[in-house]
Design goal:
Strand content: under 5%
Largest sheet: 2 strands, antiparallel
C-alpha cells in the first residue's frame, strides 16, 4: 500500500543508519576544518557544515526510535522484519530462514508482513514519525531519496538482496541502477575519512609553514557521506 512506502523506506534504511550517521559526523568535522579552503563564502560553508550535523542528529534519533520499536515486537515479528528488510547475515544464519518459514503458506507470510507493516506504521506515528515528517527531514537526503524512488516505481526488488537456489545471498543487486543504495560496510567510511583527514593534514601543514600562497588543489572537503551513499 502506497501510504506505507515511507515505513518501508525507514525499515530498509535501519541497518545502515549508524553507518550513515557516522559518515555525516565525520564529513561535517572535516568540512569544518577545511572551511578556509572552500570555494564558497564563510556563511555558506558554515550552513553546509550545520546541515550535516543536523542530518547526523536526525539519523541518530531515527535509529534510536526504530530500535525501540523493534525491541517491542514479538520474536516472530522481529524475524519477519529481519528476513524481509534487514537481511543481516549473522542474525539470519543463527536460525536458517528456510526452517523458520516452513510453517507459513505464501498467503500467510504476506498477510503477516502486511499486518506487521501496519503495526510499525502505527508505532512510528505515535513517536511522531509521520509521512510528512519523514519527507521534511529526509526527502532530499540522497540515500533515502533513491530508495524511496525505487519503492514508488515498484522496483522493490532493486532494494532487496537476492536469494538464489534456496540459499540466502548477500550480494548487491545490479539492478539498483546508479550503484548501492546504502553503504555496505563501515570500512569504506573509515577509508574515506582517513583519506580526507590526510588531505586536511597536508593542507594545514603547508599553511602553517608559510606556504599559503603555494598552489593547492581546490575543494570543499570530504564528501564522505555522499561517497558512501553512491
Amino acid at each position: 500500500m502506497k501510504e506505507y512506502l515511507y515505513v518501508k523506506l525507514l525499515l530498509y534504511a535501519y541497518p545502515k543508519l549508524e553507518v550513515l550517521e557516522d559518515a555525516e559526523r565525520s564529513s561535517a568535522e572535516i568540512a569544518a576544518a577545511l572551511s578556509f579552503h572552500a570555494r564558497c563564502d564563510a556563511y555558506t560553508s558554515a550552513v553546509k557544515v550545520a546541515d550535516r550535523v543536523l542530518m547526523a542528529r536526525r539519523l541518530g534519533l531515527l535509529c534510536d526510535t526504530l530500535e525501540e520499536i523493534i525491541s517491542a515486537c514479538t520474536e516472530e515479528e522481529r524475524f519477519l522484519l529481519e528476513y524481509k528488510y534487514f537481511r543481516r547475515k549473522a542474525e539470519l544464519a543463527a536460525e536458517p530462514a528456510e526452517k523458520r518459514l516452513l510453517g507459513y503458506s505464501k498467503r500467510t507470510y504476506f498477510r503477516l508482513q502486511q499486518n506487521l507493516l501496519s503495526k510499525v506504521a502505527a508505532m512510528l506515528r505515535r513517536r511522531g514519525y509521520t509521512r510528512e515528517r519523514v519527507a521534511e527531514e529526509f526527502g532530499e537526503y540522497p540515500p533515502f531519496r533513491r530508495v524511496y524512488r525505487a519503492l514508488r516505481e515498484g522496483r522493490e526488488r532493486a532494494v532487496i538482496k537476492k536469494r538464489r537456489e534456496g540459499a540466502l545471498e548477500f550480494t548487491q543487486n545490479s539492478s539498483a541502477g546508479a550503484g548501492r543504495f546504502f553503504p555496505l560496510k563501515t570500512n569504506a567510511i573509515t577509508a574515506s575519512t582517513a583519506s580526507a583527514a590526510a588531505q586536511m593534514a597536508t593542507i594545514c601543514t603547508g599553511v602553517s609553514e608559510g606556504e599559503a600562497g603555494s598552489s593547492v588543489s581546490e575543494g570543499e572537503g570530504s564528501g564522505v557521506a555522499e561517497t558512501c551513499s553512491r
